[in-house]
Amino acid sequence: MNRQFRTISALLRHTWAIEPTYAGQYMPQVDAYFNGQLDLRTILASEQSDDSDTEEESGPPPHAFCLRAGSDSGSAGTATRYSIDDPELPEGSILILDVRGPIMKESNCCTIGTEEYAQLIRKAYAHPAIIGGIALVDTPGGQLNGTPTLYDAVRDPAKPFVTVINEGMACSAGVWAFCGSDYIYATQKTDQVGSIGVFVRLRDNTKQLEQDGIKEIAVYSTLSPDKNKPYKDALKGDTKLLEEDLDYAATMFREAVTEGRGERLNLKAGDPFTGKVFYAAKAIELGLIDGFGNLDTAIAKVQELHAARQEGSSGATVTVAPQSGSAAPTTSQSQNTDMLGYVKFKSLAAIHGLAAADITEAHVKAINQEMAEQGYNVAVVSQKEIDDAGTLQGQVNALNAKVTTLEGQVTTLTTERDTHKANAEKYAKLPGAEASGDGKTEEQSTVGDQETFISETDRELQRLKGKA
Q1: In the chain, which residues have pLDDT < 50?
Q2: Which pLDDT value is given to residue 414?
Q3: What pLDDT does 82 receive?
């Protein structure tokens, strides 16, 4: 009963990330409840009956079960269903979540809550036999509270996660919750994606209460002037403060989608953040989803991502080097998806299990961009870049050695030159040096105001010319 009360309370007081048309269709049921025209006893009795069913009688719950696809075809049609707690759960199983209808924080008689979905995902990620998860989604969105928690669970890089829009829509909170998936597929061209935004619906029933002879008096402490002010002002026609609250939530929504989809978002194709709903083809163009596929496609993709992580599972080495101005030391980290604790980087998880040679420049660029967006002043460098840098450094060292050798040779030649010059000058000053002609010394001579140097050969030529 407490859970049902909290659900009704959420309908009245919470901010919503839901496609407005869908929400409007449900307002008659909400009105019927508050007018005393909707008997919840039947619904509650149904919930109690569902809770009393044993797993042996009903099998795995329809909203969450594990599949082990046929080894030959990998098709869901040949798959066997298991409960996540089944002790016979085979290796290579995949968690399947069936997410239909409005999203609520807590599970109730009508829907499974985001809390329970997140718990199931984390339980699957911790199970050694489960290689990943898939969500079959058809939801207009729903309650804002609880949605970020499901988003965090989906985006956790521990294991691959793929979302399939199951012939319906993934709107508003449905986008927020699952945009962190590794891949998102639409099954049909008529599938809808978007409605990225939040809103709140208020009703002023003052006149109705007055007609019923009821007058409400709300008294606030003089020390609490801002308590409930956004709602009080809105009832008076001033929605500015309430809009500021909604803008904050909408900003968080936008950041989640930007973070979850990363470089796949194509803002040149349009603005996906205005609250508009898009059909599948346009959603693909905008980068909100990745393409068309079905459950079989999703199973194959999870198996592919899992296999890629297993190849080279010894781990590639990724060096985290500080950028300019950073005091952080250079460290070498083993390739482990948990290395960053609670901080989740999809681009980093994408290289889990890859051999160093398989990590491309695009991988490194995506990781550095995501880390920069998160405010980390470090740069990731691939092993190939480290090897290339080592090779270049070796070449530089060799060139420097050659330069040092040449500089030594130049110094030696300069010394020898200076020695020979000094000897020549010394011999030129000895008695009889002019007549001997045996030396190769140079002598400074002055002709007018111009100083020249003449050799012994030149002097001999001049002497012979004089005799002639």
Answers
A1: 1, 5-6, 47, 50-57, 71-73, 312, 314-343, 435-451
A2: 85
A3: 87
Right CATH number for 2-304 from 1.10.1040.10, 3.90.226.10, 3.10.410.10, 3.30.565.10? 3.90.226.10
Contacts of residue 139, defined as CB under 8 A and 6 or more positions apart, other chains included, come to 99, 100, 101, 102, 103, 168, 169, 170, 171, 173, 174
Structure tokens given for 281: 């083809």
Angle 69-73-75 from CA coordinates, rounded to 5°: 50
Tens-digit pLDDT profile for residues 449-468: 444 556 666 666 666 666 55
DSSP-derived pairing of the beta strands 80-82 and 317-322 = unpaired
Contact 323, 377 (CB under 8 A): yes
Handedness of CA 259, 294, 98, 301 (dihedral sign): negative
The domain locations on the chain are 2-304, 311-381, 432-468
pLDDT given at position 260: 94
Q: What are the Cα distances from residue 19, in Å, to 157, 170, 172, 282, 360? A: 29, 9, 6, 18, 40
**What is the pLDDT, as a whole number, of residue 191?**
97
pLDDT at 467: 57
- Whole-structure pTM value: 0.59
Which pLDDT score is estimated for 126? 93
Give me the pLDDT at residue 310, please.
Answer: 82
Are the C-beta atoms of residues 136 and 164 closer than 8 Å to each other?
A: yes
- The answer to whether the CB of 132 falls within 8 A of the CB of 68 is no
Give the residue among 154, 347, 144, 160 at the shortest CA–CA distance from 248.
144
